[in-house]
Amino acid sequence: MRWWKIVGLAGFVGVAASGVVIARAERRRRAYTPEQVRQRLLERHEAATTPTPPPTEGTWP
After folding, report:
1. Could you tell me the pTM of the whole model?
2. Cys staple from 36: which of 14, 25, 32, 50, with CB 3.0 to 4.6 Å?
3. Rounded Cα distance, 30 and 15, in Å
4. What angle do CA 20, 39, 24 make, to 5 degrees?
């Protein structure tokens, strides 16, 4: 076998593996109901917009 055939085969295997990873992630993403997605987004928004309390004087971080 020539080296370019091995490189081509390795490239083909890489593309196939990438497709498997993408398909698995897509299945996991579609497993959520719209209500679950909405709830998670609301929780993330609330966590991002909640101000953190300022550090008290005399404490060392």
Report:
1. 0.42
2. 32
3. 23
4. 5
